[in-house]
Amino acid sequence: MLNILHHVQSPYGILNVIAELSDDMICIEAPEKGFYDAYDRDVGKDINFDKLDVQDIVDFLKERNYDLLKKQESENQDSFQGSKRCVCLFKKRKISFNDIADVRKINKGVVIGPGASGKTRFLHEFYNLPVEYKAFNIIKNNIFNEEGKSLKFGKNTTSFSEEFPIIYIAPNYKSIEGYRPNIDEWIEGLKKTRAPAIICYIKPYTHKKRLLNRIENKKVNSARQHLDNYPFSYQNLFYKLEKNGIKYFVIDTTGE
Amino acid sequence: MTTETFKDKTYRLININDNFYCGKDSFKNRTSDYIINAFDENYFDNKIILDLGCASGAILFEVTNKVKKGVGIDVDSKKLNIGRHIIRENEIQNISLHEARIENFIHKTEESYSC
After folding, report:
1. Fewest Cβ atoms closer than 10 Å to its Cβ: which of A139, A181, B5, B90?
2. What's the predicted TM-score (pTM) here?
């Protein structure tokens, strides 16, 4: 439940994470015509949005796989400035989770997900290889194809073989901003392969914890390489996959 | 039935087991009512609910007898203290109120919520 969107400086950033945290519904009370109404403590702080009409919120959440279930005018308009206030209920489209047995039934597939979402562990499990840790909770990628290369889409391979039917897209594949995942390019890659996506799914808190572990335990020059992966909008990924007619499997890697 | 009026200007009237708590303007309306009424009658049964910007927790108190757990977040300690007072007085076990900025809380919570 979120009734303060027009009082915060980054409403869409908050909505983006809330769309991941909620398992079912989001309830928002907001003015029909959006505006920024700073609390006294926030006067003078920069805001990072132009429009926050109810329709903008509806559009934003639609791209995160939420449908507007109900929109009704609030009964309380007295203590409120601006145009009429509405209560909106958004329903999350149910995520259908799969397990590795489902993936074993397909003859090709591409593993996707942001950094530290469990792709390498999944691939080891799929190919029945023991995991080897290169640092605390960080798995070394020991999977190589016939040419001795990793199964990274684009750089090393674009095809599937009987022995290696599952490959993966690196999180930073064709990143535009730093190492930030570029979902649109993932989609383009998937279209080229004509293979279903296998999504490694985790909740935000687990994701952040794992990324921080990587920064602490992996020898890298830049923390950004990891932090650019957070927050990641799985909901936006689902929306875009469905919009492009790409079949996908969702593997919950939270507990691993 | 008791009625306790707080000097602090909370707009919402809170009713827990016929004990009424209100701010000086709260008898005008009950915001929590029409928000709750937007949901199906049994929606909250055994659910885990998160209210971001909960103030004194009026919406959560409205569903306390239904939900498994309710979590409220706000930065206004005065309003949160009203809610905490109500929690103590009515020995409510399944509602907790926390002082935090929403922007910080959502990246730290390790729970999933139905709504």
Report:
1. B5
2. 0.90
- Which residues in chain A are contacts of B33 at CB distance < 8 A? 75
Provide the 8-state DSSP code for A72. Answer: E
Q: Distance (Å, rounded) from C-alpha A119 to C-alpha A199?
A: 8
| Residues near A185 by beta carbon (within 8 Å), at least 6 away in sequence | A173, A174
Residue numbers of the domain that contains B26 = 2-108
A130 and A245 co-located in one domain: yes
Q: How far apart are CA A82 and CA A96, in angstroms?
A: 40
Considering only A10-14, A154-158, A231-235, which range has the smallest mean pLDDT? A154-158
B28 to chain A, any CB pair closer than 8 A? The answer is yes
Are A128 and A214 within one domain? yes
Selected residue with higher pLDDT from A166 and A84: A166
User: What is chain B's length?
Assistant: 115
* In a domain? residue B113: no
B85: domain CATH number?
Answer: 3.40.50.150
Is A71 touching B (CB cutoff 8 A)? no
Q: Give the domain extent around A56.
A: 5-92
- In angstroms, the CA A147 to CA A113 distance is 25
Tell me: do A59 and A168 sit in the same domain: no
- Predicted confidence (pLDDT) at residue A44 exceeds the cutoff of 90: no
Torsion angles phi and psi, residue A120, rounded to 5: -65, -40
Q: Is B77 on the interface with A (CB under 8 A)?
A: no
